[in-house]
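User: Sequence in, structure out. Go.
Assistant: Echoing your sequence, followed by the structure tokens.
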Amino acid sequence: MEYSMDHGRSRISNIILLRADMRRRQDAYRRKFFLVMTLFILMSAATLTLSIKSFAYDRSSKTPSYKYYTSYTVQSGDSLKKIASAYMTDEYSSIDRYVAEIVSINHLFCASDISEGTELIIPYYDNCIK
């Protein structure tokens, strides 16, 4: 009979130890989970803050520019590249793109499709509201 009581006690103590171990593991898992979630939230907040600051900096550092159009009468010896170099502003990445826009706006077939006296519409940017 003693054998069965001792056996029963050891079985109960094993169950108690297993439950205690399970609780410790669950607590450790919860701590790790909350640590990971806290780090994720902090990193997300930092990223969001930095992106908002950089967006605000980008917008405040640039002066707004407005697109306008002017007319130009082609003179003898003019080419679209020569006209473009006189009117092109920093908003255009290259003179070729600017010439392409002039060709498109004026419904020309190619850049050499101009002659003396032709009226062209020329786009340009300015910081002032006109």
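User: And one key feature?
Assistant: The first strand starts at residue 66 and ends at 73.
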